[in-house]
């Protein structure tokens, strides 16, 4: 996994899916100031990277969740990646909306799924874990057995670790914030003086200052 973690971090920086700006932070919708910007949907525009992410997901799922029967993507960022993984594994695919449709069948889960089926959920990014675990809960309420979740990247917030533990949902990611910092330093994308500040943000993002 260490090679995959590093390769994913390299790819995300290379295509600017991730940007690190410790002295000129971004502002999240929550109001938090953040030294990192992440949009993993950019990986879909690069066939080599898109395929690497898909194949890495498939290897991880076959290793950790051998009984999987259905792949589920979390809308909207993980729909495409989830469909690619399901196609490669030859499995059914569904996706979970952030909220139920306000018209028609008012679906929350799109696609055919049956109670009792064993599901692995695909996510693109794990921050606090709240929206990701809502998808897990929707599947459980539909009677499915959620084996776990896999994601491209995690910020490794303690809040998300606690949330997944409380929800009894296993989580595995292809890369993470620590691997990103290591690669960014190794490649001179950031300097050693940036590292401590970047690590402080991960520990207490709500109160972090540039």
Set down the secondary structure blueprint.
Layout lengths: L1 H13 L3 E3 L5 E2 L5 E2 L1 E3 L8 H18 L5 E5 L4 H11 L3 E4 L12 E2 L7 E9 L3 H12 L3 E10 L3 H9 L4 E6 H10 L5 H12 L7
Parallel strand pairs: 5-6, 5-8, 8-9, 9-10
Antiparallel strand pairs: 1-4, 2-3, 6-7
Helix pairs in contact: 1-6, 2-3, 6-7
Task: Tell me what you see in this structure.
The chain contains 7 helices and 10 strands. It has one domain: Rossmann fold, CATH 3.40.50.2020. With 210 residues, the protein is of the alpha/beta class. A 6-stranded mixed β-sheet has the order 7-6-5-8-9-10, sandwiched between helices. Strands 1-4 form a two-stranded antiparallel ribbon. Strands 2-3 form a two-stranded antiparallel sheet.
Fill in the keyword field for this structure.
Rossmann fold; two-stranded antiparallel sheet; single chain; 210 residues; 6-stranded mixed beta sheet; 7 helices; alpha/beta
Quick synopsis:
The chain has 210 residues and is α/β, with parallel strands linked by helices. The protein is built from seven helices and ten strands.
CATH class: Alpha Beta
- Strand neighbour order, sheet with most strands: 7-6-5-8-9-10
What is the third-level CATH name, the topology?
A: Rossmann fold
Strand tally: 10
Largest sheet geometry? 6 strands, mixed
Distance between the termini: 31 Å
Which structural class do you get from the secondary structure elements?
Answer: alpha/beta
Q: Work out the strand percent.
A: 15-25%
Radius of gyration: 17 Å
- The number of helical runs is 7
* CATH architectural type: 3-Layer(aba) Sandwich
Low-confidence spans: pLDDT under 50, at least 5 residues?
Answer: none
Name the helix and strand elements from N-terminus to C-terminus, one letter apiece: HEEEEHEHEEEHEHEHH
């Amino acid at each position: 996994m260490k090679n995959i973690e590093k390769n994913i971090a390299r790819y995300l920086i290379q295509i600017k899916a991730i940007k690190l700006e410790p002295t000129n932070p971004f502002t999240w919708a929550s109001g938090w100031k953040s030294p990192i910007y992440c949009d993993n949907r950019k990986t879909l525009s690069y066939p080599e990277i898109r395929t690497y992410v898909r194949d890495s997901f498939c290897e991880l799922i076959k290793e950790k969740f051998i009984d999987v029967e259905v792949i589920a993507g979390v809308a909207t960022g993980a729909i495409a990646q989830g469909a690619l993984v399901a196609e490669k594994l030859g499995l059914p695919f569904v996706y979970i909306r952030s909220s139920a449709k306000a018209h028609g069948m008012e679906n929350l889960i799109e696609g055919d799924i049956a109670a009792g089926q064993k599901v692995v959920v695909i996510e693109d990014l794990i921050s606090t874990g709240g929206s990701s675990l809502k998808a897990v809960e929707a599947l459980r309420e539909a009677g499915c057995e959620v084996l776990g979740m896999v994601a491209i990247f995690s910020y490794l917030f303690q809040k998300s670790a606690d949330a997944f533990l409380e929800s009894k949902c296993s989580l595995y990611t292809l890369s993470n914030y620590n691997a990103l910092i290591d690669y960014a330093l190794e490649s001179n994308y950031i300097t050693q003086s940036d590292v401590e500040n970047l690590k402080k943000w991960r520990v207490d993002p709500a109160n972090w200052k540039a």
